[in-house]
C-alpha cells in the first residue's frame, strides 16, 4: 500500500519525505487555503519536494471549466494528478481528461456505486472518505472493502485511495481492506511510529549496553 501525506504544508511534507517511505501528497482547496499562497505556486513547491503523485483539486464545477482547469494543473508538473469532485459534471470531465492522457483522482466519494462511475470514466484514483463516513456513524472501512471487491471483480485499473484518515486504525483498516493508497495528515503519519514497548525496549537495550561497557 502506498502512503501519501494529506497536506499542503511544505514543512510537514519535507519532514515526512525525509523517511523515504512516502509515495505522494494529496491536497484539497481547504488545505491549500491554510497555506496562504497561490494554488499553482504551492503545488509546484510540493512537487519539488516529493517524487510521487501530487493531487491538485479543481474548483470549477462545470465540465468544460473543470477540463480547462485540469489541463492547467497538469501542466504544472508530471507528478500532478488532477482531483475532481464526484458530481455529474466531474464524471464528464474525468472521461475527457482520461482520453487526453491526464490522470485524475476522483474525490468526495461516499458510496461504492459512485466509485463504479469513477472507474467507468477511467479515473486513475478514487478517494473514498473514511473519516467523514465514520463521523456520521457509517463504517468507512466497509466502503473501502466494497470498492476494492468491485474493482477486482471487474478488473478496473482505478486505484483505491483511502482518504480522510483520522488515526492509525484507519491506516490498518485501509491496508486490510486492500486499498492501494492511504493518505494521511502528518499528525496521523507520525503516530504510526509509536509504541510504548518500543521505547521501553530500546531504553533497556541501551542501558544494558552502557552497563556492559562499565563492567568490561
Ligand atoms: C483527500 O484527498 C482529502 O483531502 C482528505 O483526506 C479529506 O480529509 P478530511 O475529512 O480530514 O478533511
Q: Overview of this structure, please?
A:
This protein is α/β, with parallel strands linked by helices and 216 residues long. The protein has a single domain (2-215), classed as Alpha-Beta Barrel (TIM Barrel), CATH 3.20.20. 55% of the residues lie in helices and 17% in strands. The chain contains eleven helices and eight strands. An eight-stranded parallel beta barrel has the order 1-2-3-4-5-6-7-8, surrounded by six helices. Helix 1 (10-17) runs parallel beside helix 3, helix 6 (112-120) runs parallel beside helix 8 and helix 8 runs parallel beside helix 9. It starts with a strand and ends with a helix. The model has no long low-confidence stretch (mean pLDDT 97). Bound molecules: erythose-4-phosphate. Residues 6, 26, 28, 107, 127, 129, 131-132, 163-164, 183 line the site of erythose-4-phosphate (E4P).
Summarize this, please?
By secondary structure, the protein is an alpha/beta fold.
Strand content: 15-25%
Secondary-structure class: alpha/beta
Q: What is the CA-CA span between the terminal residues?
A: 46 Å
Order of helices and strands: EHEHHEHEHEHEHHEHEHH
Please give the CATH architecture.
Answer: Alpha-Beta Barrel
Q: How many DSSP-defined strands? A: 8
Which ligands does the model contain, each kind named once?
A: erythose-4-phosphate
> What value does the average pLDDT take?
97
Widest sheet: strand ordering: 1-2-3-4-5-6-7-8
Task: Tell me the number of helical segments per DSSP (H or I, 4 or more residues long).
Answer: 11
- Provide the gyration radius in Å: 20 Å
Largest sheet: 8 strands, parallel, barrel
Query: Which fold name is given in CATH as the topology?
Result: TIM Barrel
Helix content: 40-55%
Amino acid at each position: 500500500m502506498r502512503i501519501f501525506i494529506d497536506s499542503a504544508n511544505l514543512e510537514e511534507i519535507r519532514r515526512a519525505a525525509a523517511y523515504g517511505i512516502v509515495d505522494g501528497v494529496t491536497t484539497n482547496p481547504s488545505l491549500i487555503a491554510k497555506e496562504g499562497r497561490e494554488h499553482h505556486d504551492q503545488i509546484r513547491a510540493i512537487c519539488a519536494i516529493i517524487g510521487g503523485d501530487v493531487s491538485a483539486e479543481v474548483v470549477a464545477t462545470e465540465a468544460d471549466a473543470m477540463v480547462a482547469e485540469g489541463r492547467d494543473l497538469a501542466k504544472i508538473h508530471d507528478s500532478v494528478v488532477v482531483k475532481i469532485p464526484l458530481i455529474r459534471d466531474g464524471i464528464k470531465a474525468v472521461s475527457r481528461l482520461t482520453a487526453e492522457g491526464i490522470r485524475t483522482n476522483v474525490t468526495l466519494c461516499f458510496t461504492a456505486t459512485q466509485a463504479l462511475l469513477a472507474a467507468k470514466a477511467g479515473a486513475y484514483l478514487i478517494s473514498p472518505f473514511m473519516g467523514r463516513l465514520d463521523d456520521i456513524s457509517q463504517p468507512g472501512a466497509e466502503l473501502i472493502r466494497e470498492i476494492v471487491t468491485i474493482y477486482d471483480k471487474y478488473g478496473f485499473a482505478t486505484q483505491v485511495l483511502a482518504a480522510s484518515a483520522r488515526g492509525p486504525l484507519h491506516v490498518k483498516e485501509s491496508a486490510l481492506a486492500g486499498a492501494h493508497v492511504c493518505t494521511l495528515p502528518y499528525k496521523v503519519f507520525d503516530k504510526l511510529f509509536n509504541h510504548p514497548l518500543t521505547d521501553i525496549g530500546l531504553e533497556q537495550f541501551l542501558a544494558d549496553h552502557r552497563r556492559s561497557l562499565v563492567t568490561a
